[in-house]
Amino acid sequence: MNNMNCLNIWQDRSSFLGAFPATSWHSHGSPVLLLGVSGRFELEFRDGKKVVTSSAIVDAGISHKVEPCNELMALFYLNTKSLDAHRMRIHYLAGSEYAIDVACTSLGERRFLNLVHDFEFNELLRDSLPSIYSAVDERIQKSLRCFYQDKNQQSMKELAEKVGMSSSRYSHLFTESMGVSYRKYRQWSKLSCFYQQYAKTGNLTDAALLSGYSDSSHFSNSFKNIFGVAPSQILNKHIDLNIYF
Q1: Could you tell me the CA-to-CA distances from 102 to 23, 121, 123, 144, 192 in Å, in that order?
Q2: Is residue 92 assigned to a domain?
Q3: Does residue 110 share a domain with residue 64?
Q4: DSSP letters of 122-146?
Q5: What is the CATH number of the domain that holds 171?
Q6: What spatial distance separates the first Cα and last Cα of the chain, rounded to whole Å?
Q7: How many CA atoms lie within 13 A of 120 on its CB side?
Q8: Which of 124, 146, 164 corresponds to the end of one domain?
Q9: How many structural domains compose the chain?
Q10: Domain contains 106
Q11: Which CATH number belongs to the domain containing residue 95 in this structure?
């Protein structure tokens, strides 16, 4: 494996493979599958519990720290509205904030790396995910279609009005259906726009401003709250960034 870190971004998912830095407290806008490619890593949660494992799933909105222990890692992020995210929650989390030792341990190194590179996370998991239909409320699905059509610019109040709901009821139903608050989901989705701009400009500040952040500090704080690291620790000359939408 070469020294270049790889970040792949799709419309509904993303992955990172390489040397991930130790993080501060953070919480994602989507469920994340973490794999120790070359060894075990440590997770710490707000209740003080620490776990050392080679694989884990942490749900959206759960505050945690990651200590890679100098090992290479693979991280898979699923859009919380996707079927795979719901399937993963149902089978592995079942109401829990996280699950450990979730990956298949019988894969050879070459097979493992190929699956990681191709985002075949289903085949990396210990158990097959169940076949289910979307658990997202139809009104939330409708509002999300509006959300993406308007490139993430609408407020929660505007989306609630489009589906005939009050802001408070919409907020509750959104969190119930998506497993994460509207605010956190919007922050997460806004990063897709940033990645597209960064791929074009190669400049963090320019990409942040073009993506609707008020300034580079606003973007940096948002990024660190979501990933637990500064943008420059990931998006630098050592990253191979691929955008697939």
Answers
A1: 22, 11, 11, 30, 27
A2: yes
A3: yes
A4: HHHBSSPPP-----S-HHHHHHHHH
A5: 1.10.10.60
A6: 26
A7: 11
A8: 124
A9: 2
A10: yes
A11: 2.60.120.10
Find, among 73, 75, 70, the residue nearest to 30 by Cα. 75
Per DSSP, the three-state class of 91 is helix
In a domain, residue 76? The reply is yes
Half-sphere exposure of 179 (CA within 13 A, CB side): 30
Q: Are residues 104 and 149 in the same domain?
A: no
DSSP E strands in the chain: the ranges are: 5-9, 13-18, 32-36, 41-45, 50-53, 55-58, 64-67, 73-78, 98-100, 239-243
User: What is the per-residue pLDDT for 134?
Assistant: 65
Tokens linked to 210? 């073009």
CB 115 within 8 A of CB 108: no
Instruction: Say if 148 falls within a structural domain.
Output: yes
Provide the Cα torsion 173, 90, 54, 65; round to 10°.
20
Question: Measured between alpha carbons, how far is 215 from 85 in angstroms, rounded to an integer?
Answer: 32
Kindly give the parts of the chain with pLDDT less than 50.
Answer: 1
**What's the confidence (pLDDT) of residue 213?**
93
CA distance 75 to 80: 15
Range of the domain at 36: 5-124
Structure tokens at 129: 């995910």
Q: 110 with 152, same domain?
A: no
Report whether 119 contacts 15 (CB < 8 A). yes
Give the pLDDT score at 2: 52
